Amino acid sequence: MAIIHLPVMLREAVILLEPRPGGIYVDATIGLGGHAEEMLKHIGNGKLIGIDRDEESLRMAGKRLLDDRVVLKKGNFSEIGRMVDEAGVSMVDGVLFDIGTSMLHLRTADRGFSFLSQEPLDMRMDRDQELTAGDIVNKYPEKDIEKILREYGEERLSRRIAKAIVRYRIKKRIITCAELADIICSVYKGRGKIHPATRTFQALRIAVNDELNELRKGLETSSGILKSGGRICVISYHSLEDRIVKNFMKDKREKGVFNIITKKPLTPSFEDVRQNPSARSAKMRGAEKI
Ligand SMILES: C[S@@+](CC[C@H](N)C(=O)[O-])C[C@H]1O[C@@H](n2cnc3c(N)ncnc32)[C@H](O)[C@@H]1O
Predict the structure, then answer these.
(1) Which of 19, 192, 229, 262 is the most exposed place for a label (fewest CB within 10 A)?
(2) What does pLDDT average to in each consecutive run of 10 residues of the chain (290 residues)?
(3) Which of 11, 76, 102 maximizes ligand 1 atoms within 8 Å of its Cβ, making it the mutation to test the pocket?
(4) Domain boundary among 158, 178, 208
């Protein structure tokens, strides 16, 4: 079955970035190419550099877009400067970050992102990377696991879950996603509004992919390659990411580098969320280089 990833806040992203004919734009998280496809409609004979660290997503985006104006690059967006340089460009008119995972990750069981999956705990966006979520739960000291769950998952039972993980792995290596989800459920008696494993899985994903550091570096580097009047648009999906984006833009405004376009973050419309429930936590912020 074909995996479909509906681009989140597509209309708002285009309004905010204002892609113009002849402009050079970077989609730093091209994923399955939804936002990129829309941007291409506005840039005439311009250029779009699409980045993703997931080889499979890049391949699918390439097939979807089939366009001479597109240059695709595999790598971390923290290295956006180098990748843009390799594409023969020095300064760009706009950068889009739509961070996090795509449906390709969440719906493909063997990528090991979903707590419903019976496949090994993996969660690597870049499959060439060595560290997996399985390594963290089976090898890291209890204190480090607790810290990851507390800081990246804001998990209130981080200590008890870390203890349960370590107690379990003395008897048997934790292999599948569902096995870890069962360990977490044994700590949480009863269920709240969300599945008890949600926060732990978010935390492990952030740790495996070093997501928060990637975001800090990616934002900083992209501010250096934006032309004056160029725009940056960031869509994030949880408060830890949004805080980084907000503070970054505020800091750049204070230093006279950016004007902030979105005084408050934009959020998806009721209709967007109805069509695409995974968009419900999205927050979009934008700024323009002075
Ligand atoms: C939410 S999806 C983007 C979906 C895309 N906007 C679309 O319309 O199809 C996020 C993508 O960013 C990629 N990604 C996340 N963090 C990254 C990073 N630090 N460097 C490069 N790619 C990253 C993921 O592999 C994923 O494909």
Answers:
(1) 192
(2) 80 97 98 96 98 95 95 97 95 96 85 91 96 98 98 96 98 96 90 87 97 98 98 96 98 98 95 89 97
(3) 102
(4) 208
